[in-house]
Amino acid sequence: xxxxxxxxxxxxxxxxxxxxxxxxxxxxxxxxxxxxxxxxxxxxxxxxxxxxxxxxxxxxxxxxxxxxxxxxxxxxxxxxxxxxxxxxxxxxxxxxxxxxxxxxxxxxxxxxxxxxxx
Length: 118
Prior knowledge:
Blueprint: E1 2-6, E2 9-11, E3 17-24, E4 32-38, E5 45-50, E6 58-59, E7 67-72, E8 77-82, E9 91-101, E10 103-108, E11 112-116
Parallel strand pairs: 2-11
Antiparallel strand pairs: 1-3, 3-8, 4-5, 4-9, 5-6, 7-8, 9-10, 9-11
């Protein structure tokens, strides 16, 4: 099972980034997918989640209207489009998959750094 994030980087306030996560090793369509983030000195927090068929998208209040989560079940990919970025969005962003195959799995990728600074 593997989740590999990409697309992070340094961006100015007000800018945009698109994070991507490539998944392998499990039945992608069976998984609920999410993006989490962890800022220095803070706990990891849920940013956005999406259901198996691209439905039931949900967001952390502070990113509503700025971030959009999506998935492509044909390509085993999940995305996070981040617009109007703020310094408070600076964190390591992690892709997450939750699925059941004989037992429950809760898998994270290695993370990608997003830094919002002028």
